[in-house]
Please model this.
Amino acid sequence: MRKLIHTSLYLFLFSLNAQIKKETIFLNFESYIKEKCLIEDGSGSKMQILKYRKEMSKKRTLFKICDEQFTLNNKVKIDTCNLDYLKKIKFSTIEEMNKKWDNNRKEDLFSSSAYEQIFILEKNNNKIIKYPVIWSSSYTEK
Model:
């Protein structure tokens, strides 16, 4: 009986969470801009780092915006678009994403689960590269 109650409660909460409309987020990744941001280094001190950083290895690609980290989702295809695509979308900011996650923290264990999909858009010559990413800094407590 107890197992039936737990299973019923789990299914109810799962279906309730699935009914929440989740949005697709687009972040502008301007790696050519040398803007800096101030972050805490873990020891209580502050340090300045480049706002947009891209780190590539054989196994993964990381996009870092200030102290937030996004990992390329290899399960979804990278897409390219022409510059006109930028007129059709609305960019979000890290601050907006953090605010939404803070508001929905009870429902979403990880911040990346608060969104249907997250894309980082990077301008490359006359094209836009659309990277599907996972908000990987969400797997650590904020």
